[in-house]
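S1.2 Input.
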Amino acid sequence: TPSSTDVSRRSPLLFGTKAVAAAVAPPQTNNRGAREREEGTGAEGSLTGGMANEMESDSCRHTFPNGDVYHGAVENDLPHGYGKYEWSDGSFYEGEWSEGVKHGYGKYKWASGSSYEGQWSEGCMHGIGTYTGSDDSEYHGSFVKDKKSGYGKKKYPNGDIYEGLWKNDLAENLGIYHWLNGDKFNGEWRQGKMHGHGTFVWHTGERYDGDWKTGLENGPGLFIWADGSAFYGFWEDGKKHGSGVWWRELDASGGGGAGATPRPKSPNDATADKLTVALSENKVIGREYNKGKLVKEHWIDRDKVCLPSLRATREPAKKTKKYAKKVQGETIVKGHRSYDLMLNLQLGIRYNIGKVNEESVKELEASDFDKNISRQIFFPHNGSEDTPPHSSTDFYWKTYCPRVFRDLRKRFGCDPGQYVYALCGDHALRELSSPGKSGSVFYISHDDQYLCKSLRKSELNHLSNILPAYHKHISEHSNTILPKFYGLHRITNPQKSQRVRFVVMANVFCRDINIHRMYDLKGSVVGRSSGNITESTILKDLDLDCTFKLERKWHDILFDQLEKDCKLLEKMNIMDYSLLLGIHFTDEEENSMMDDTTEDDDGGMNGDQGVEEAPLGTSSSLQTIDEDADSRSFLANLNKLNKVTSTKERRTSEIFHQQTRTRRSDTMRPVITEDLEKLSEAMGVSYSQRVLGVSMPATVIYNDESKEPRDALLFFAIIDILQDYNARKQLENVSKSVVYKRNEISAVSPKMYSKRFQDFLGKVFV
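S1.3 Output.
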C-alpha cells in the first residue's frame, strides 16, 4: 500500500510566565507518528511583557516576535477551549484545545498544503477525520494516535482506492482495493498485503478466487479465464502446485478482469481444442503441478469430480425488490430516544477492546472471573486523559471480566477489528422490539452479526455466577449450541441516575440469506401458540407442523452435544430456555434467483504468474494418463481440495456485501462424500469443520402427507439461559399445576425441564 506523505504537527508557544522557559530551552520535538517533524523556534516574552495582544474575558489575541499568532480562549497561560493558532510559515490549527494541546474537534493545515479535519486527543489525530495530502491523496476514516487504524477509505494520488480496515497505517483484515485500470481485489489483508481469502478480478476478463499469503496465491483457489475455461486446484507462492482440475462449461461466459498485476497466459489454440474435446466427451482434465510446472494430466469423467459452480462469475442479476433481505429493527439516528445510549455503548466497547488487547495474554486466574474487581471509567463529553471527547452526555462505563470475554471471543473466532467495526463503525445500530415477555431492549449491529441485549440486575449477577462453568464448557466443547457471549457491560448516566446493563452476543440468524420461518421451541404446551401469525412472527411449539431430517452423522452430533449442554444448564439450576430455529427453504431461493437483489462477487485475484507449462500433445515430461490407479489417486487428492473449499467460511461485513453477496448455489461449495474428512487429514491440509447449528442441510417433512418434502438450511441455537429456578418460578409452578398438568407448563424444575426439552427435540429432528 502506498505510504502517506510526511507532514508535521507542532505545539503552540507558551504564554505568560511559561514563555520564559520557551525562550531559554529549545522547543520539544514531537515524534508521534510518521507525519511529524521538528517544531518551530520558540518566542521570548509574555502576554503582559509589551507584545501586541488583545484580551476579552478569557479570550485573547497574542502575537509572538517570530510571527506566530494565537487568537482564542486561554486558561492558566495555555490555549484552552476554542482557538486558532497560526504559525509564521503559513500553517495553522483551528479548533478545540485542552491545556495547551489539540484536543477535541479541529482542523490543521500545513504549509505544504496538506490538511486534517476531525477529532484530536492529546495532540494526536485520534478518532474520525479526513486527511488530505498535498499530492491530492485523501483518507477519511478512523485514526489512532496519528495512524490510520479502524475503518477508512483512501484515495491515492494515482487514482487507486482502498476501502476497508486499517492498522498502523496499513490495510489489515477485510478490504477492497480498486486499481485505476479496473483491476480489483476484495478480501483479507495483513500488513498491507493480500493475505487470507479473497478475490482478484482483472479488467481483461480473468479472475482468481482463493487463498493468499503475503501477496501471492497460496492454498486452494479457482482461476477463470476470459473465455470461460477454469482451473480449480492448489497454489504455492503464486504458482500452481499440486492437484487440480481444468475444464470448460458448456454455457461458459466471461468472468472478471486482468490488468496491472501479472497474470497467467490464456490457453493457446491447441489447448482450447483439447478442452473442447473433453467437453464433448463429458470429461474434465485433471492436472498435477510442481511449482508451476505441469507434470501429469488425467482425463476423468465429469460425473466423478465435484466442480465448483461458475455462476458467481457471470453478470449479476438485475436488482429488484422481490428477493431483498428484509432489514430488522429501527435505525438509531440523532434524535432517537436511544441515540445517546447507543453512542455510550459504542464508545465504551471501542475503549474496552483497545485496552484489553494492549494487555499481554496469559492464563486466566480465578480473580479474572470476579465481577466486583472491574473498574468504572468516567467518560466526560470533553474527553480526559484516558477517554476521547464525544458528542454524547457524560457517563460511566464498566466492563465485567474483560480478560475472560477476550478469551471467549478468541475461542469463538471473533476478530477484534471486525468486532469493533461491526458495533462501533460508521453505521448506526438498529433497535429491535422485544420479542419476548422480558421487556429487554435489543440492539443489532449493521451487519446482523451481533446483538446487544439489556439485562436486569439479577440476570447480570446470574451470568457472572455461571461464567466460570460456562467458560470451561466452551473450552471443552467447540460444538456447543449455547449462546455465544462476547461481552458484559454497564452504562451509568449520572444526570438521570440510570443504569443500563448489556450483554453482547452472537445473532443466531447472522447470515446473508433470508430466514423464511422462525420457531422458538421449549417442549411445553401451555401458552405455546403464536396466535395472530404474520411473516415476521416467531412461531412456537404448537405451531410446528413438520419434522426435520438431518444427515445421520450430524443428527448424532447434535444430540450428543445437546445432552452435554443441557447437563450444564441443569447443574447451574437454569430452566425456561428454548431452541431458536430458523429455516431457509432452498427452493424459494432458486425460484427467486432471477430477481435476486444481491450481486455476484466480482472480486478475483492474481493468477498463475510465471508458470512454465509444456504444450499439451508434445513429447515432454508431461504424462497423459487414462483412468487407472494414478487417476484414482488423483481423485483422492482432488477430494481433499473439495473439502478444504467446501467448509471455508468467508468473513464479511456490510461494506463488502454490496459487491460480494453471492447466492448459496453459486459459491464454491461442492458436494462432499463421507470419507473426505479423513482424506483431507491424510493429505496434511487443514480445514474448518462445518459448524453445528449453522447452515445445516435438512429435509423438511410435513405432518400433512399431501405436502411434498422440501430441502432447507437450518440455523439454530439455545437462547435465554439466564433464568434460574428461583422462588418466583417455583411459585409459578405450584399455581399453574392446579389448572394444567405439570409436564405441560414451562415453569418446572431444571432436571424435568432438561429431559422434556431433549425428548421434544428428539421428535423434531429425525
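S1.4 Remarks. The chain has a mean pLDDT of 76.
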